[in-house]
Design goal:
With about 60 residues, this protein is an all-alpha fold. The chain has two helices and no strands. It is elongated.
């Protein structure tokens, strides 16, 4: 079922949903959701950095 999780472009949505469903302690659920949110924030931040670096490189090529 989750054999492709090691792949870079895999999605773990179903696993995340099932994990949330089985957690029986509300504090654990909040911790789990918080960790997932931090992962999203890190992905967004990384993407922003990559795009910003790309535009810096493009600008420098256009100037030269």
């Amino acid at each position: 079922m989750y054999s492709d999780m090691r792949m870079e472009d895999s999605s773990c949505d179903e696993l995340i949903e099932k994990t949330t469903d089985v957690l029986d302690d509300d504090r654990l659920k909040l911790l789990f959701v918080s960790v997932q949110q931090n992962n999203i924030d890190l992905c967004i931040q990384t993407c922003h950095t990559i795009v910003s670096d790309f535009w810096v490189i493009c600008d420098s090529l256009l100037i030269n």
